[in-house]
Write a structure and sequence with these properties.
The structure is a single chain. The protein is of the alpha+beta class and about 450 residues long. It has 11 helices and 14 strands. It has helices at about 1-35, 105-120, 135-165, 205-210, 230-235, 295-315, 315-325, 340-355, 360-380, 390-410, 425-445; strands at about 40-55, 60-75, 90, 95-100, 170-175, 180-185, 215-220, 225, 240-250, 250-260, 260-265, 275-280, 280-285, 285-290. The strands form 6 sheets. The chain has a 4-stranded antiparallel sheet. It has a two-stranded antiparallel sheet with strand order 1-2. It has a two-stranded antiparallel sheet with strand order 3-4. Helix 1 (about 1-35) packs parallel to helix 9, helix 3 (about 135-165) packs across helix 6 and helix 3 (about 135-165) runs antiparallel to helix 9. The longest helix is centred in the N-terminal third of the chain and has 33 residues, at about 1-35. It is found in: Membrane. Belongs to the peptidase M50B family. Keywords: Hydrolase, Membrane, Metalloprotease, Protease, Transmembrane, Transmembrane helix, Zinc.
């Protein structure tokens, strides 16, 4: 049954992501058609076509590689200024077809020219008023923003449902005299945290003093301890001095003596600057606080997520490089690092098949995993880089601003922004995305993240 539940978790996650992709593409297609644009293809996936059906002027289908999707909107790229004269030609059968003359004056120019030619090859004169590039700038922004906005809405409604019912659980230090949760058996430098003790590591002061999990610290060097923050400050300020610690174990008052050691540790939970402080080697017992909330609470939480996601996007190439190093065994994989849809599927499978969580927690984990992927996909697609949706949004926004300035200054209309000129950058970005995607997928197969760490 474990294998069955694992497979069930993977299937649920994959189906949910594919549904999200489909809704993302609907977010582009529906407004495009509403504004009079011509959509010739709507596909989920890439690569060879598995299934398709023609409905009206649009072909709907599924492709073999479920790592994305697309809609084909006619006339995304405007013709180049030197190519306008060749827009309409008559083919061998006597049909009038709109084409663009190719240019071969340089590698990038050829790339741009080829892209225009492919874009315009099947455009007929009847499509002249339905070309995407001719839409009003605000309409183009709505069409391109529709996809990632759908992902953010999916995330919002899932988060809202979870926060309003199950709530958001956070671990906070229990109030009162601190109860010890863990005792380090040895002193491990902060920069090496996570590894196991070795014979070369000195024993921790807490371990030498006889402290164990469950002990409640009452005094430190004769000072009554009323909370964890106070105890932490006393330990840090003690540097490498002697320490007498009174604690309660199973209702019995006990004492231990040791000497704290000096270690480089973060200044605080919010400031990761390292400084030399006294170190004992204990962590406090935590209590789970459950907070519930509605749409405003959800928006507030998503605001915090946005800040963290922007930070993650800024360091994404570095994080992916770390995954590449983990693949070849040069370092351990960061448990908080990025994962692909393969890694998400594995985590979903492990969750559903695990005996450690009740059904409610499994459902919440799956929902939060799906919402998290949608939130990241939405944020990622808003990056102002082609070929992402944000790149098209930025082009349309600049076109809108440029035309507005021209009207205010009573200057001639500067015309459409030619996104085709940015295609060389788009190819570089697309290549980088492909490489990062492949690295993450290989990482999720070779050095996968696990619920057990």
């Amino acid at each position: 049954m474990t294998a069955f539940y694992y497979l069930l978790g993977v299937v649920i996650f994959v189906v949910a992501i594919l549904a999200s992709i489909g809704l993302h593409e609907l977010g582009h297609m529906i407004p495009a058609k509403k504004f009079g644009g011509k959509v010739t293809q709507y596909f989920i996936g890439f690569g060879p076509t598995v299934w398709s059906k023609q409905v009206g002027e649009t072909e709907y289908g599924v492709k073999a590689i479920p790592l994305g999707g697309y809609v084909k909107i006619v006339g995304m790229l405007p013709p180049g200024a030197h190519e306008l004269a060749d827009e309409v030609v008559v083919d061998a059968a006597g049909n009038t077809v709109t084409r663009v003359r190719k240019s071969n004056t340089g590698m990038f120019t050829q790339l741009i020219s080829d892209a225009r030619a492919a874009e315009w090859e099947l455009v007929g004169p009847e499509d002249n008023d339905r070309l995407f590039y001719k839409l009003a700038s605000w309409k183009k922004i709505v069409v391109m923003a529709g996809g990632p906005t759908v992902n953010l809405l999916i995330a919002f409604f899932i988060f809202w449902g979870v926060f309003a019912t199950y709530g958001q659980q956070t671990a906070e230090v229990a109030t009162g005299a601190p109860v010890i949760s863990t005792v380090s058996e040895c002193v491990i430098p902060f920069t090496e945290e996570g590894r196991k003790c070795t014979a070369d590591d000195p024993p921790s002061p807490a371990f030498e003093a006889g402290l164990r999990p469950g002990d409640q610290v009452t005094t430190f060097n004769g000072v009554a301890v009323t909370g964890w923050d106070q105890l932490r400050d006393l330990i840090r300020d003690n540097a490498a001095g002697d320490a007498t610690i009174a604690y309660v174990r199973d209702g019995q008052q006990l004492n231990g003596t040791t000497s704290t050691t000096v270690e480089a540790r973060p200044t605080s939970e919010t400031d990761e600057t390292l400084r030399e402080v006294g170190f004992l080697g204990v962590t406090p017992e935590l209590e789970i606080i459950t907070t519930t909330g509605g749409p405003l609470y959800t928006l507030d939480q998503m605001g915090d997520m946005t800040v963290e996601t922007v930070k993650a996007l800024a360091t994404l190439p570095v994080k992916v490089f770390d995954v590449a190093q983990a693949i070849v065994g040069l370092e351990e994989r960061d448990p908080l690092g990025p994962v692909s849809i393969v890694g998400g599927g594995r985590l979903a499978g492990e969750t559903v098949s695990s005996d450690q969580f009740p059904v409610a927690e499994k459902a919440v984990f799956l929902l939060m995993l799906i919402a998290g992927f949608n939130f990241f996909i939405g944020m990622f697609n808003f990056l102002p880089l082609l070929p992402l949706d944000g790149g098209h949004i930025a082009s349309a926004a600049w076109e809108w601003v440029r035309r507005g300035i021209a009207r205010l200054r009573r200057r001639p209309d500067p015309g459409y922004v030619d996104a085709a000129k940015l295609l060389p950058i788009a190819y570089v970005v697309a290549s980088a995305m492909l490489v990062m995607g492949v690295v993450l997928i290989i990482g999720d197969l070779v050095v996968p993240l696990s619920l057990e760490g």
